[in-house]
Amino acid sequence: MPRADEIALPLSPIAIERAPSAAAEPRVPYRNRFALFAFRWRSRRQLLELSDGQLKDLGLSRADAMSEGSKPFWLG
Predict the structure, then answer these.
(1) Cβ proximity of 73 and 41 under 8 Å
(2) Do residues 31 and 21 make contact, with C-beta atoms less than 8 angstroms apart?
(3) 43 lies in a domain?
(4) In this structure, is residue 23 part of a structural domain?
(5) 43: burial class by Cβ within 10 Å (0-12, 13-18, 19+)?
(6) In this structure, what DSSP letter does residue 9 have?
(7) Residue-range definition of the domain harbouring residue 57
(8) What is the structure's pLDDT at 59?
(9) 49 lies in a domain?
(10) Would the N or C end of the chain have less CB density within 10 A of its end CB?
């Protein structure tokens, strides 16, 4: 049975987006790119639905939320 430090877990869409780009592998594989785009689309739509109080809890203004929420899903 493998030890816990030997098990490789799949990367989340956030980890993929924040990972430094490697010169040997500059492109994200198609299925990971789709997951990243879907994550961005969902999270930006949810951001636009938050109340002013919820945005304040996150330290964001309505203008910040509108700016981020209106970006296309293919832009980081």
Answers:
(1) yes
(2) no
(3) yes
(4) no
(5) middle
(6) P
(7) 29-67
(8) 93
(9) yes
(10) N
Q: Tell me which residue has tokens 């981020």.
A: 68
Q: Write out pLDDT tens, residues 30-76.
A: 678 888 899 999 999 999 999 999 999 999 999 999 999 999 988 87
Domain count, the chain: 1
- Across the range 8-23, mean pLDDT stands at 58
Compute the distance between CA of residue 60 and CA of residue 58 in angstroms, rounded to an integer: 6
What is the amino acid identity at position 29?
P
Region 9-24: mean pLDDT is 58
Cα 41 to the center of its chain, rounded Å: 9
Which pLDDT score is estimated for 76? 79
Rounded-to-integer distance, Cα 14 and Cα 42, Å: 13
Give domain status of residue 6, yes or no.
no
